[in-house]
Amino acid sequence: MTAEPALELRNALRRFGSVVAVNDVSLHVGKGEFVTLLGPSGSGKTSTLRLIGGFEELDGGAILLNGQRIDHLPAYQRDTATIFQSGALFPHKTVAENVAFGLRMRKVPKDEITRRIAEALDIVRLKGFEARYPAQLSGGQKQRVALARSLAVRPAVLLFDEPLSALDLSLRLQLRAEIKRLHDELKFTAIYVTHDQGEAMAMSSRVAVMNSGAIEQIDTPETVFHAPVSEFVYTFIGESCCLPLRITATGVEDRKGETLGLTLGERPGEGECRIYVRPSRLRLTGDAAALPNRLRARIHFIEFLGDVYRYHLKAGALELAADHAGPIGYAVGDVIDIGWRNEDARVFR
Amino acid sequence: MTPLATVTSHIAERSRQERRKATAPWLLMLPALVIVLIFFGLPTLYMVRMSFNLHVDQRLYVPGFTFEHYVNLFSNPLFTTAILTTIKLALVASLATVFIGYCFALLVWLKPARWRLMFIGLALAPLLISEIAIIFGWWMFFPKNGLLSYALIASGLIRDKVSLMYTEFAAFVGLVYVTLPYCFFILLSIFDGIDKRLLEASADLGATPFKTFREVMLPLTWTGILVAFSQSFIWTMGTYATPSALGPDTLWTMGFLIQEQMLGKHNWPMASAFAVVLVAGVAAVMVVTRSLQTERNSFHV
Known about the structure:
By secondary structure, chain A is of the alpha+beta class. Chain A has 8 helices and 20 strands. Chain B has 12 helices and no strands. Chain B is flat, with a radius of gyration of 26 Å. The interface between A and B is medium-sized, with 26 and 23 residues.
């Protein structure tokens, strides 16, 4: 999918004392691609980004930008621009001066700077805010200025360091859509760090799921979601219920040895394993009747989540959660049928 | 009660409340205000009045009104030289203090937090000792048989013992040492208010370390620099013990002359005139530094 790589990481390594923060990470990012580094805190995603930006030093490997090695260059000589989580706007400069900063440092002629400030602020829809100071802006506006400041210098690659995580939900969704729109329009190359899988899914050309310093899987959002390569990726992308089971010669039991009416599409062989099912894929009551995997479960408690009701269920030693669009007509303590299709479950051991 | 009476009583109640609202802050400030006025305002006024009194024979002062002391102050070359010397010494010492304090505070701010406590302890140390004890310390350091002399010989830089005691340099070092901790803490508090990510953002946008300093650090710390300078300057202008104990006999500062007029010559009006000029001079410097603070520099504070 990538014609010419704009950015390339070759076996990047970064240690903090005895901790390996970035462990042998290799990554190709094509021109115009939007790659997200997704992972829990401490997975090395921010360290990877900081290596690219030049804020951390590489302990091994190489970083190439448009075919040129940049890992020996200080941050101010790299053609990258970062959008920080805090925005990191200069508090003593106006919006226009903030946007102009990178251009002045790159010795862009004055009238060109004026033109580009107007253009950048137009892109992020902040026309008329030129003379304001950062303290006079809201959180969302600050991040838009930060975005404009980075876009204005037209870097080879834009680095996003969890830029939306400090904002409230509605603003986050709004800015997320806006970044997506900008990427579609301007076709910039971007690396986006986040721990929010929704953000990763919505914006990315490709998602790299990171765990303890390494990339577990990198692929399109659809593939990562539907065909996760590891248990970690599966559980990190989206919610799921975990069923610890034991497979014997005669059938499937729970860990207490009780035989269950499960067929399981893929059987990993005898022994202990874990099955995962997403709450949205569990069928309840009548819907479960003809399915190959069925359990009798007691309703433990019910949550109303807005769009759906979430039924927390107990089937013997197993605990499950199932989403249903409306109330199913049963109350806490009732025993109901639940089931799922073979293709809706994943088995890991 | 008639309706009209109810309305008027309401209005009266409302205005009473408003008056209470207006007086409340003043009442809260009153204790502090009284202390400031009695212990600082009155003595200063008394000093100003004293500077116009007459000085006859060997009497401390005679009530009266004359400008003679001020005229004397600005016409006697002995006094004008002392004023200039004091200003020069204070200026150089304050600039040096701000420079050293700035570098030190910057270092502490940039270093990882685990070093911080050690540096702060180091900076606090001089504050735990009185100015007199510090002077005794320097007396062990500067003379011919002092630490400095031995250290220089041991390092092979010089062959004969030297004494820097009773030099202007010693006075300068002493002044810097006394004011440095205050300067350091003022600047550190300013640094602590700055988001370190700004340095990264600046580098990220292509600014060299030097440009980052000039475009980001300096404007953001400018207020702190001015405040630190003002306090250093006030201290070094007024201080008496350190320069007289470490400097040469010929180093006549205003502090020294005030002491001499007061205790040696028993000329209270003259000493007061000196003190008034000193206070006015320091106040003028405060006004100037204040005017150098621009509104945008205080945005992050």
